[in-house]
Amino acid sequence: MSLVLRCARGSGAESLSVTVGTTLDKSPDDPAARPEFARIAASTAARVSKARHCGAELGKPVGSLDLPVRADEYEPLGTADGTCSGIPAAHGVTTATETARGGAPQEVCLLGDTDGTTRYSLDADYGPYAQERLYGYEEHRRLGSEEAAPGSDTPAHHRDRYGRMSWTTAMCADGRALFVLRPSYGRQEKGKRAEPPAGEADLAYERAALKAFAERSAKARGCSAPVVP
């Protein structure tokens, strides 16, 4: 569970982020444990804001956390009204697993079929989460371990038939946001490529799905229009 607070102007920092995890049996996926995770994250953020002179404006106590409990909590894609809203359905892509779009620093949308198999995953990262991910991609590219990945010289990209992902970016008040789409083809067989080459129809759908996801997410955050590859 993560949260981000925007620091006051003149504090010397743009924002601070807090992530809460555990090695115990409890998990944010358990509705009974979610309030406890939220309280820990909120109280930690408040203390850090004061200690670091961030001066963040603290909001009201969290009343509810609208998160899926299980991976199979999908719904028809046409009725999605959260992070998957506005994404068109296609042959083999008819369901969505989503959360409410409430200004979280990370957003996820999973697209699948009626058997519960995930076909595509879409992620949006904002603020320090986007900065961390973009920095990681830059490091991988520098070391030559990424064939194609988001970077300062590639703000948007449509994957080719053998590529691993598509992405685009947008400018927000807290920096650049990153939107990524990855295809999912199930488990990788030993000695074989995990992803078969995509057809033109697949690639066209991915572009439409990423465009809809990124545009709606960026607009809800007051960011610029996502970059077109």
Give a verbal description of the structure:
This protein has three helices and eight strands, in the order ββαββββαββα. With 229 residues, the chain is an alpha+beta fold. The protein has two domains: 50 residues, no CATH class; 146 residues, no CATH class.
Short description:
The chain has 229 residues and is an alpha+beta fold. It has three helices and eight strands. It is globular and about 55 Å long.
Helix share of residues?
Answer: 10-25%
Q: How many structural units, i.e. domains?
A: 2
Whole-number radius of gyration?
19 Å
Q: Strand share of the residues? A: 15-25%
Give structural attributes.
two-stranded antiparallel ribbon, globular, 2 domains, 8 strands, 6-stranded antiparallel sheet, alpha+beta, 229 residues, 24% helix, 3 helices
Helices, strands, pairings?
Blueprint: E1 2-6, E2 15-19, H1 34-51, E3 75-76, E4 95-97, E5 106-112, E6 118-125, H2 127-142, E7 166-172, E8 175-183, H3 200-220
Antiparallel strand pairs: 1-2, 3-4, 4-5, 5-6, 6-8, 7-8
